[in-house]
Design brief:
single chain, 187 residues, alpha+beta, 5-stranded antiparallel beta sheet, 34% strand, globular
Length: 187
């Protein structure tokens, strides 16, 4: 089976724990098939799918040379994709961030040198807390009361997907922001 990869920002441990704690106050464990563990919470910047090893190494090398600035993100409640009564994805929202949009665009532009990319302007940054509706029960998110939290983005990573393990996402390379220095490999 081919390995699949994606580029994402890992959610800080304290925030991930708080999101899971709020999710556990809801009935999402009864309404959805997949509930990511805290270690798997992330903001997807680009889903790569299967990439040949040689191309993946070239992407990693290029990402480590990418110039970008660290920035802050702020959570903004809970929302969903799909029908309100039976949403396919429930997620923690993020306030709009021009810095995040710019980083995502730079990554997509860089990837276009190596793979065929889907260039869309509808990047909707979010932190998935539940997906794949699986219930006759009505969704109840009233107890999900995560206060808005600000956190720093100082790195992003390439992850591989391990469907039969938990945590399911394995970090294979991390790109750290370095003040005044060229970015370089950290793994």
């Amino acid at each position: 089976m081919n390995k699949h990869y994606f580029i994402a920002i890992k959610i800080p441990k304290e925030l991930a724990a708080a999101i899971i704690q709020e999710r556990d106050k809801t009935n999402l464990h009864r309404t959805h098939k997949i509930l990511p563990v805290a270690e798997d919470l992330h903001i997807t910047l680009y889903y790569l799918g299967h990439v040949a090893d040689g191309i993946l190494q070239q992407i990693i090398h290029s990402l480590n040379r990418l110039e970008w600035e660290s920035f802050e993100l702020k959570t903004s409640g809970v929302a969903h994709f799909g029908n309100e009564a039976t949403p396919r994805v429930v997620y923690t929202s993020l306030e709009k961030s021009d810095s995040l949009q710019l980083l995502q665009q730079k990554i997509v532009q860089l990837l276009s040198n190596f793979i065929e990319v889907q260039k869309t302007n509808d990047f909707n940054a979010h932190i998935t807390v539940a997906k794949k509706w699986a219930s006759l029960e009505s969704l109840n998110l009233k107890a999900f009361n995560l206060p808005d939290v600000v956190f720093d983005v100082l790195s992003f990573s390439i992850f591989t997907v391990n469907v039969n393990r938990s945590p399911r996402y394995e970090e294979i390379c991390t790109v750290k922001w370095r003040r005044g220095e060229n970015n370089g490999p950290t793994s």
